[in-house]
Structure formats: structure tokens, C-alpha cells
Amino acid sequence: MTDHSGLLASWPGVEDARLDVAGRQARVLRADGDGDDPQLLVHGLGGSAPTWIEVIAPLAQRGPVVAVDLPGFGRTPALDGDQLTVRGYRDFVLRTADALGWDRFTLHGNSMGGLIATHLAAKHPERVSGLVLVSPAIPPRRPVGLLVPARSTIDGIVPIALSSMTAGALGLLGMASPSLTRRRNRELLGLIYSDPDGVDRRVLDLLAADFAAGVLDAETRRHALLSATRSIAGLWTDPRATWRAIDRITAPTLLLGGTRDALVPAKVLRAVLARRRDWEGHVVDERRHALMLEDPELYLDLFTSWRLGAERAA
């Protein structure tokens, strides 16, 4: 599939394509590279491959890079019988690597994608040569953590929830105002960007294009969102499986997050780093939930430094 709108012109070297993954046409953004370190990028809940757009081409200096839309998100259809769960997506990501012919690869995951990547690296250590977790949706070690959310979570989620519910109710009545929509969108952007007003419009247009009419029907998106949310909630209710997965990971791992992340509290990331002292971690001051979008230059600097260090150690 080509990018008919020309929105990718701002990111030379990145191609919008289709990949046959176990009989389905999955949407990928890809960039060719001359190195021998292929990299597979997995988005978060409700997102799509363009959440990685700012880092795809630079990462390709090390080898080919592919960001994939998970089934039911972006432009990848969900088929009958699909398990739209963390486990189902874990298996889909591995099949994507198979379709690419990659025996070993570096795996990047953001938010839900980070949770998926954690379980994949634990189950298939022979396939993952390096792991980059960006604000991964790791549950607190004890479910009681769900009852005591971080203040940043409260500050970030409450206004969004109220605004979204209000907009939804008015929208059903055909009464939603442009100003309300703008406020809700700004609050949503505030989950990712410290300065929502300074966001590159080209990035927003690219992300928004995946929600255009005719890409995926609303019911497919809704089903994928609800199914994936239930799956994440199950892992958060009983966090033992995820923390056992953390213990089993053998790949060199880089963990990134932000002190102002309203979705994945910094204290959870610090608990992971305290448990896995062999991992490199950076919980960056004043950064939020998707460092590769908010500050791609910092993301690339931290990744490059970590990868070179891991290679020297090896």
C-alpha cells in the first residue's frame, strides 16, 4: 500500500507498505538499512505505527526498521478468531518477524506495546537480541497499587475522562462544540507532549489519517480497544505473570520513561529497575508517555549510547 495522501513526504526513506502476516495484509511503516540489526517497533493501546515516525529513519542506520499496526488498530484488519489480547498480539508480533525473515531482532515497545514486548522477550529469548521498553504498561507488583494511583495519574486522567465523557454525551445528541473537541484533544495530547501547543502539525496529521473513514470500521476499532483493555486489566489484576516475565528476560534491555507520565507511574519503572539491576534505565524529568514522539532526539541518543555499550560489553 502506498501513502496516497503524501503525508510521509516529510520523512524521506520511510515507506507505507503491506506485509502478509499469517494470511492477513498487515500495515507497516518501514525503512531499509545497511546494518545487520533489524528492529521491530510496537505501538500502544489505541495507537498505530506512526507513533514511531520520528525515529524510524534514524534507527535504520543500524539495519532495517519496521513499525507494525497491531490487528484492529491503525490499518491492519482484525480477522475472525483473532485473539485481541496481550498474548494474541505477542504471537502476532512474532509472526511479523517471521514474515520479514528475521531470526533475531531488536524489539521496541511503547505502553501496551512494551507489555507485549516484555512477554515476547521472556517467552522467545532466542529471537530478541535487544529490548527497548518505552513507558511499558507494567503493573505494580501488588494489585493494591491500582487502588492508590500516582498523583500524576490522577492529575492527567481525571480531566481527560470528564472531557471525553462530556464530549461523547453531547456528540450522541449532535451537540458537541468545536471548542469542547479542541479542549479534549489538547488534554489527550498532554498525555504525550509537555507542550501540546508546540506539536508538529505534520505528525498529528499522519496520526489522524489512520482514523479516517474507510480505513477500519468503528466496530472493529471498538472491539480491539475493549478486548485489549480487558486483557491488560487482567494482567494488572494479577501481576505475577508479568513480573515472572521480567525475571526471565535475557536480552540486553533499555527501559525509558518520564516523571510526568500520567499513565505509567515513574515509581513502577523504578521498581522494575531495582529488580533488574542489569538493565539500563532512564526516567527522564518532565517527560511523559511516549518519549520517541515527545523528544525523538533524546530517544535516539539514549538508544545509541545503550546499544554501543551493550555491544562493547558483549
Kindly describe this structure.
This protein is an alpha/beta fold and 314 residues long. It has one domain (7-149, 216-313): Rossmann fold (3-Layer(aba) Sandwich). It is 44% helix and 15% strand. It is built from eleven helices and eight strands. It has an eight-stranded mixed β-sheet with strand order 1-2-4-3-5-6-7-8, sandwiched between helices. β3 (39-42), α1 (53-59) and β4 (65-68) form a beta-alpha-beta unit. α3 (112-123) packs across α8 (240-248). It is globular, with a radius of gyration of 19 Å. It starts with 14 loop residues before the first strand and ends with a helix. The model is unreliable at 156-177 (pLDDT under 50).
